Amino acid sequence: MSDCIFCKIIKGEIPSTKIYEDDEFFAFKDLNPQAPIHTLVVPKKHITSLMDMEEADAPLMGRLLYRAQEIAKLQGLGEGGARFVFNCKGDAGQTVWHIHCHILGGKRLDDGFGAK
Ligand code: AMP
Ligand code: ZN
């Protein structure tokens, strides 16, 4: 999609710090990290949000989850663990309308949303 910033990042039209790329996925550092490791994993196919995916996208999104956990391990999070988040639409705070999985880790996420 021509006016999507993540499509532009995938095409190299906007700079990013690339962590991983293959035929289907692109992963890069979040510009405004919320944890010592904060990586975004996106499919190269433009899908607006998790709640806009079609059933035909299910195998792609399954592979995205597999890649995301691999990328987390590549970044040293295999032992300590990580949080994998999809913000979906307004109430969840989605700000970029190209589906993305946040990988957050590198510290204990004591924010009342999980780890205690
Ligand atoms: P969300 O709020 O779930 O839609 O997350 C969008 C994320 O994209 C935010 O955490 C932003 O910091 C991040 N972001 C926005 N623009 C860029 C960019 N140009 N490069 C890297 N991360 C970005
Ligand atoms: Zn896009």
From TrEMBL:
Taxonomic superkingdom: Bacteria
Example of a GO MF term: catalytic activity
Extent of motif Histidine triad motif: 98-102
InterPro entries to which the protein is assigned, alphabetical: Histidine_triad_HIT, HIT-like, HIT-like_sf
Active-site residues per Swiss-Prot or TrEMBL entry: H100
Listed CDD domains: PKCI_related
Signal peptide limits: none
Ranges of residues in domain HIT: 5-113
Listed Pfam families: HIT
PANTHER family xrefs: HISTIDINE TRIAD HIT PROTEIN
The protein's name in its UniProt record: Histidine triad (HIT) family protein
Organism whose genome encodes this protein: Hallerella succinigenes
